[in-house]
Amino acid sequence: MKIYYLQSVYQLGKHRIVKVLYNDEVFKFDEGTLSPFNTLTIDEIDPANKILCLDLARTVNKTDNVGEGKYYVDATSALMEKASWTEYVLEVI
């Protein structure tokens, strides 16, 4: 799995993940649509990463009540998970 994250930080040491793609989808994606970015790669074939990859694909571009994603890339280019993250869903009445 390829993780695209912005080079600019949104908080000190935190880079926003903007796109995640499984390896078989990468050739179809136009990277020119992104602002300056870096990539991180996860071995999606490794059984230990299966749940992580599914969760990344499910939660990318979703935010909590303060506008942060569940995952981010830190200053050392490591994938991090925000503790106690809960997706914000706008209630329409």
Summarize the model shown.
This protein has 93 residues and is mainly β.
Architecture overview:
This protein is mainly β. It is 11% helix and 32% strand. The chain has a 5-stranded antiparallel beta sheet with strand order 3-1-2-4-5.
Task: Outline the fold blueprint.
Blueprint lengths: L1 E10 L2 E8 L15 E5 L8 H10 L11 E4 L4 E3 L12
Antiparallel strand pairs: 1-2, 1-3, 2-4, 4-5
Write a concise keyword list for the protein shown above.
93 residues; mainly beta; 1 helix; 11% helix; globular
Distance between the termini: 38 Å
The DSSP helix count reads 1
Major beta-sheet overview: 5 strands, antiparallel
**Arrangement of strands in the largest sheet:** 3-1-2-4-5
Indicate the structural class. mainly beta
Fraction in beta strands = 25-35%
- The overall pLDDT average reads 94
Succession of helices and strands? EEEHEE
Q: What is the share of helical residues?
A: 10-25%
Outline: globular
Rg measurement, Å = 14 Å
Number of strands: 5
Q: Pick out the low-confidence regions.
A: none
What does the oligomeric state look like here?
single chain
